[in-house]
Amino acid sequence: MIARLRRTGLVWPTLAAASALAVLLALGTWQWQRKAWKDDLVQRIVARTVAEPASIDEAVALAARSGGDVEYLRVAAEGRFRHDLERYFYAPATAGPGWHVVTPLDLGDGRHVWVNRGFVPEALRDPRKRPDGQVAGPTRIVGLIRRDGPVDTFTPANDPRRNIWYRRDVAALDASAFPPTNPPSVAFLLEADATPPPGGWPKGGVTRLALPNRHLEYALTWWGLAATLVGVFLAFAWPRWTAGNRA
Question: Could you tell me which residues come within 8 angstroms of residue 184 by beta carbon, excluding any fewer than 6 positions away?
């Protein structure tokens, strides 16, 4: 067979096609394995979001034990909001530009946790226009843990001086709001659930749980390219092979 491949000039085309086929099949298999991993991740996240809420102390302890894997853990916290220290995260919406109101919650033990209370339209960014929502006394919130946001070239840099924020950064929030002598906040942010506050604003429940999972599509694409390669190679090689058989 090798002699026939040489005679028909198919040795190198066959080796190249076989190598490319192995790569395409491996890429398809890798994406299939990534799909299984993403399916498991989505199931774990959903389970966390509907579980009974943990306390702040339980969440902090779990983060220390699990290497920080507490993303989307449901947590309940009690304290008083420091409305004078509100921070505003740019949040464009279909109805127009708006903001996520992020406020430190004083836990009463020297610590605080930053809470994304939810969305307000541009017209309600000024807290004086939503006084009912500025809860003054002790309050309890339930929300999902979010770690600091990723740094990428598509997200603008935060502008603490103008109080315009684009990505989660607990250390930067602390530095902008509290003196250096103040104890640091809990090392994550809570995104409050959709329980409406007095007056209806801010509107909580802004966490996006729809994680993209296109790995099946990618796997089928790679495997489809592999099948196409086989078809193209057979169309190329078969006439040469049969001609060599007649020779």
Answer: 171, 174
